[in-house]
Every structure is written in structure tokens, then in C-alpha cells.
Amino acid sequence: MKVKLREIVPFDKEAEEKAIQKDHGLHPDDKYLKPGRIPHIWCPGCGLGVVLTSFIEGMRRKGLSVDQCAVVSGIGCTGRVAGYLDMDTYHTTHGRAIPFATGLALAKPDLHVTVFSGDGDLFAIGGNHMIHAARRNVNLKVLCVNNFNFGMTGGQVAPTTPLEARTSTTPLGNAEPGFNLPYLAHAAGAIYVARWTTFHPRQLVHSISESLGKKGFTFIEAIAPCPTGYGRPNKLGSGLEEMRYYREMSQIRNGADLRDTEIRLREKIIVGTFINTDRPDFMENYMGKVVARARAKGKGKEKGKAA
Amino acid sequence: MGKKVGIEVSIAAAEAVGLCDVDVVAAYPITPQTHVVEHLSELVASGDLDAEFVPVESEHSAMSVCCGSSAVGARTFTATAAQGLALMAEIVYIASSMRLPMVMFLSNRALSAPLSIWNDHSDTMMVRDSGWIQVFCENGQEVYDAIFHSFRVSEDPKVSLPVMINVDGFNLTHVIEPIEFWDKEMVKAYLPPFRPLSKLHPDKVLSMGAFGMPEIYAEQKQAHDVALTSSTPVILQGWDEMAKLTGRKYSAVETYRAEDAETLIFAMGSICETSTIAVDKMREQGKSVGLVKLRLWRPLPMGDLRKLLAKAKDVVVLDRSIALGAANAPVTSEMRALMYHEPQRPKIHCMIAGIGGRDVTPDDVVKMVNMALSEKDYEYHIYGVRG
Ligand SMILES: Cc1ncc(C[n+]2csc(CCOP(=O)(O)OP(=O)(O)O)c2C)c(N)n1
Ligand code: SF4
User: How far apart are CA A167 and CA A157, in angstroms?
Assistant: First the structure.
């Protein structure tokens, strides 16, 4: 065969770390990342790096080690984080991160399970899972990177693309309004809802670490520049210029009325922590209502039934 | 006659769909299908194509929209690949069983897992029993011409079935080729307006999708099978008429230097062009080798194939997908079954090649033929696999 096939080399973490130290010293995030996987595939100016760093920082702040956490992602540029993080991660098919993570969270209730995925993955093809997991209040932390388009496949219209925004499938402007994600998450039952942009990494880190301490379904929208898919057709400029745009457009309003948080092109974007409440999560309800009743009747696994 | 242009195959296909004056396009983006749909959205946005472009939220919805639009008599098109087709599968079966005409551009891509965006035929083989008409294309011109042909066949009242055009992802979808375009007059002469046998209309009430109780289900399946197998004359006539218009003559099965060949390579899709080079090489070495290219996969042109294959001593099938746990890869299995009762039948060898985008060169084809001819076990082989 003409093509040269890549050698299969077993992954040696120690050797990898040594090589990195030799080149440029160990980065503080390296113990959370698979250094052998870097450089990543993301475009220059993409906001995904900021969100990933913020997630790691949020974990660190919460005092969580990689062994206590799992990350599940769907398909997309955002979905690639599952491959970069050096912990238990799973890259599901497109749209199925939440049901996979639900299984994980129910089987291992002590694990901190984060769903880290794109707006298209979570709200187009996977939208149904999102609302049902929120309704059940499954103990999941959803971190949704919203770049207003399907980045990975070439910048097509997504259910988050604002009305009139241009994408590769709406060349003269989108005829549909985008979802107001915080409002949707709240209405479906999320107990914690926040929105920040990559211009607000401190607040984003705070929200991530705060959500990691909650028991139940939490939702954080991280608005991120996608200069390749969204910035270019909408004349938002480079990644840096798109960041500037988010700086100018953002207005911090914690606890805002979620009917006002819809996003329109070239209009203000309301960011903040909007919802922070508590209600029994799925496990608590299930153990309290179903399992407890079965046990009272002398049934269930503990009473000698085969596992 | 239309002009000849150097153009990316996906864009040319979208132009052809535009020329067919399609009414509804519903699709969800997936590599390597995206350029087709993006170009259609441009045609709609610029006003060049008066159609509804529906950017649905998943492939399951795409195929559902297509069923709806076809049921009211709208000319309908969609495009997808691999995971998208897998998600559509439920409705793919509905579309054909409900006899709803539409055309799908399937940019063939390997199924997950592992996740791959590259070319093979595992996606289309997954739905090979779904009752769609399935055609394969070898080059850009074939893809372009297949769009007009597929709408004509699909919407013919004698057929009334959906058509899937298989286009090898990247190997064909993303290459730039010289393609001879059709003009509006040619399309008008070739493709009559869509007049469905029955459609949903408020003036003439009709129920579709009703329950099939045990006393009717088997009859419905038989009717579908008859419809599919008897669509062949319409398919062939469509190609004959096209030849009059364009000078390009297509048939269900084609051959290359196969007349006197002792060994036949059997292939589908873009690998056929690679195989013709391999045939030339082997002929130069004095070997008696030819090529059978199958364009029409469903309905399978059984008579033509039996006649062709019976003449050879050996047939080497280049299968582009695996059927795990089965007796053989899909195409080989069918060819063996087809020849089982023939008095004179060749040895049929199976070479699984080019899966998940692994490149296949003419030299690889030569090697595969040599390997097949020297084998003793007649099992399937995954060519080039390590370990
Ligand atoms: C069933 C299925 N359909 C389509 C695709 C193609 N696909 C891959 S990523 C993607 C969109 C990703 O968009 P988003 O979730 O917003 O993530 P981003 O790339 O913007 O980070 C699509 C449509 C797929 N992989 N599977
Ligand atoms: S396409 Fe957009 S989201 Fe994807 S890596 Fe590039 S900038 Fe980031």
C-alpha cells in the first residue's frame, strides 16, 4: 500500500510528561489534560479553550480531583473536550451525551458528572433529552458552549442562531428565532441556571464551581466566539473582535427575569446567574418513593433478591 | 447540449436538484454531505430556486419532513451520511413502504464506532433491505445525471418509490471534475411534473400510515417487493431516454474488458475507476482480467448478473463494508446466493477493502486479485489489515 500508516505506540504518560517538561515545563493544567493530545484542533480565536480552562479551574476551586469527575460530550468542536481531558470521559454520538451521562450518574451517584457539549448537540438533535433530564432533575452539570451555529460541520444554522443572523445555510439571514436557553432550562426544571461569555472567565469559573456543589440538574450557557463559523458571515471579525463584541453587548443582571434573556443579533446580551434553587433530585425521589416503598413491603435487592 | 464546467461534485449535484425545480429540501448537516445542502440553501436564498428549505433539528426530522412533503405531492429532496442515515432509519423504511417518492443524496461514510468521517459503504448496506431504489455512481458526471434520473424514476406512477443515490464521501463528493451541465429545456423534456397517484388533499380525504393487521401485513410487504422489482423497466427506460438527450448511456451493470476475462473484479462506486486502471495493468501482464461495475444495487439486476458472472472462472468482489458475524460481506453474500443454483458458477472471492476511508490504489486492487486467486479457504479477507 502506498499510504504510510501511523505506528501504534502505546501511550506512556510518564514519558509524555517528561518530554513536555523538557520542552516548556509542566503547565498547571497538565494534570487535567492529556498533553499528548495537544495541540488541539480548534481554530485560532475559538472560545472553546477559555471554557475548557474555566472548567478545570472550577473543578480545582471545588477541590475536585480527576478521579471524582467524569465528563460526557456529544459530537462537535465542543465535543472534542472529552478527548483532551485526562479523566473518565466519553464522546457519545451526536446528541446523546445527556442520556449516557444519566446512566453514569445513576449508577455512580458519587461521581460528579458534567455534560460538556455544544448548543447544536444539546438543543437540536439532543433537545429532547435535555428537557427530560431537567424535568427529572438528574444530578448532572450541563455546560453548554453556545457559539450560535454548528461549528464542526461548517457553520450551519442551529436552533440557537439568532433571527436574521447569517450562516452557511441561511446566507441571507435566519428566518427563525433562536432558543432562549436559560429560560428553556428553567422552564424544564433546572435548579441552577447561569449564562456567561468567554469574556467573563472569572464569573464562569465561579458558576462552574458553584454548580459542581449542587445536587440536581444545573445548566450553564457559555457564549463563545466561533470566528470561523459564526463570526465571519456576521461580520463580527476575528476571535478577539468577537470577544470585544461580547464585552460591549453583555450586561450583567443576576437573577434577571428569564423572559428578557433572549439573544438577538447586535442587541444586548443579558448574562448572570439567574436561578439557584433546590428541589429533590431524581435519585432522592426514586429512593424515597419507589425503593423505600418496595423495601417496606419486604422486596428489593437488600432483602435477599438476586442482584 | 449544456455547457461543460469544472466544478465540485457536491455543488454540481445541488445545481441539478435546483434544475429539477424541487419543492422541499429538508436536511441536517453532516460531513461529507454539507456542501450539497449549503449550495441548495444559497439557491433558495438567492431566489434562483423557489423551494422550502427546512433546516430541521435532526435527520429523523429530516426524513419525517420529506415524508410529509412527498405525501402532499411536493417534489422532495434530502441528503445525509452515515450516522445521519442511521438516525433516519426508522423513517427510511416508512418512506418506501408508504410508496413516497423522493430523492436522497447519500454521501457514503463509515458508521461509528469508532467515529469516522471517511468513506465506505457501511451506511447504505445498513438499509439495503429497506425497499428503496439504490444506485451507485462512479464519477461526478454520473452523480449529476443520476439526480434527474432519480426524480424521474421515483415519481413515475408505475414506481412511486424513493431513490437513494450513493456517492462516495470525499472521494467523489469533494473532488472537482469536468461535468457537462443540462439546460432547462433538457430537464423539461426529460422530467415531467410530479403527479402522485394519491396525495393528502383537503378536497379528497385520505388516511395514510394506517395499522397493518396480521391479515394484511404480509400482502403489503409482497406488494412493496413487487413494486420494487418491477421498477427495473422504468429505470432502464429513464437511462435510454437520457442517452437520446445527452449521448451518455447508462445501464444497470457495466463491464470493462470483461468479454473474454477469466477473472472478473466486481465493484461498486468510485473504486470502479481505480479498478479499471488495475485491469489495464493486469492485461498488460497478459492476465485475463476484466471488471464488472454494478450501478443498480436495488432492485438487483439478477438476470444480467447471472449471465455475466457465469462466464468467468473467478470473481473477486471488492466489498466496501463488513457484515460482522455473517457468512460473508454483503455484496459477496448476494453474488454467491445469486449463483448457487447456476449449473456453471465461478468461484466468488471476498476482499473487504477501503473501509473507514483506507485508501485503495490500483496496485492494491492488483494485489487483492492475486491474493484471491491464490487463496484456498474462500473466506472473507479484510485487505491490508494489521495485527
Ligand atoms: C446523527 C448525526 N448527525 C449529524 C452529525 C454531524 N455533526 C457533527 S458535529 C455537528 C454539529 C455540532 O454543533 P454544536 O453541537 O453546536 O458544536 P460546535 O461544533 O459548534 O462546538 C453535526 C451536525 C453527526 N455527527 N451525527
Ligand atoms: S469552527 Fe468555530 S467552534 Fe469549531 S474550532 Fe473553529 S472557531 Fe471553534
Answer: 6
Residue numbers of B between 41 and 60 with CB closer than 8 Å to A: 41-42, 45-46, 53, 55, 57-59
Taking alpha carbons only, the member of A245, A121, A226, A241 closest to residue A167 is A226
Ligand 1 pocket check for B84: Cβ under 6 Å: yes
For residue A275, the surrounding DSSP H or E stretch is strand A269-276
Give the gap in angstroms from C-alpha B245 to the nearest C-alpha of chain A. Answer: 33
Q: How many CB atoms sit inside 10 A of residue A280's CB?
A: 15
Q: A164 in a domain, yes or no?
A: yes
**Do A290 and A264 share a domain, yes or no?**
no
- The model's pTM is 0.95
| Average pLDDT along chain B | 97
Q: Is A150 exposed, middle or buried (0-12, 13-18, 19+ CB in 10 A)?
A: buried
Residues of chain B with CATH 3.40.50.920: 253-382
Q: Tens digit of pLDDT for each residue in A17-56?
A: 677 666 556 778 888 998 788 889 999 999 999 999 999 9
Does residue A1 lie in a domain region? Answer: no
**Helical ranges in B253-357 per DSSP H:** 271-284, 302-310, 330-339
Q: Is A80 inside any structural domain? A: yes
CB A229, CB A155: distance < 8 Å: yes
Q: Is there a single domain that holds both residue A153 and residue A296?
A: no
- Taking the centre of ligand 1 as the mean of its atom positions, its distance from the CA of residue B361, in whole angstroms, is 31
Q: For residue B386, with 0-12 CB atoms within 10 Å meaning exposed, 13-18 middle and 19 or more buried, which class applies?
A: exposed
- Same domain? A251 vs A300: no
CB contact under 8 A, B361 and A2: yes
- Write the DSSP string, A100-169: HHHHHHHH-TTSEEEEEEEHHIIIIITHHHHHHHHHHT-S-EEEEEE-SSBTTTTSB--TTSPTT--BTT
Q: What percent of chain B has pLDDT over 70?
A: 100
**Domain B253-382 falls under CATH 3.40.50.920:** yes
Res B73: pLDDT: 98
Query: Rounded to whole angstroms, how far apart are CA atoms A165 and A177?
Result: 9
Fold classification of B4-245 is: Rossmann fold (3.40.50)
- At B1 the pLDDT is 63
User: What distance in Å separates residue B359's CA from the closest CA in chain A?
Assistant: 7
Query: What is the model's pLDDT at position A306?
Result: 45
Nearest bound ligand to the CA of residue B84: 1
Rounded distance between C-alpha atoms, residue A144 and residue A207, angstroms: 13
Cα(A99)–Cα(B125) distance, integer angstroms: 28
- Asked if residue B204 has pLDDT above 70, the reply is yes
What's the confidence (pLDDT) of residue A302?
56
User: Would you give the DSSP letter of residue B241?
Assistant: H
Residues A230 and A299 grouped into a single domain? no
Mean pLDDT, residues B274-292 taken together: 98
Q: What's the confidence (pLDDT) of residue B135? A: 98
ipTM of the complex: 0.93
The three cell numbers locating residue B69: 412533503
Domain assignment of residue A300, given as a range: 281-307
Joined grid coordinates for residue B156 = 413515475
Closest CA to ligand 1's atom 13: A150
In which band, very low, low, confident or very high, does the pLDDT at B147 lie, cut at 50, 70 and 90? very high
The total of structural domains in chain A comes to 2
- Which is it for strands B4-8 and B76-80: parallel, antiparallel or unpaired? unpaired
> What residues contact B379, with CB distance under 8 A and at least 6 apart?
B350
Average pLDDT (B177-200) is 97
Give the residue on B whose Cα is nearest the Cα of A96: B87
In the chain, the amino acid numbered B111 is L
Which chain B residues have a beta carbon less than 8 Å from that of A83? none
Three-state DSSP state, B287: coil
8 Å CB contact of B57 and A169: no
Q: Which residues of chain A have pLDDT under 70?
A: 1-6, 8, 17, 20-25, 301-307
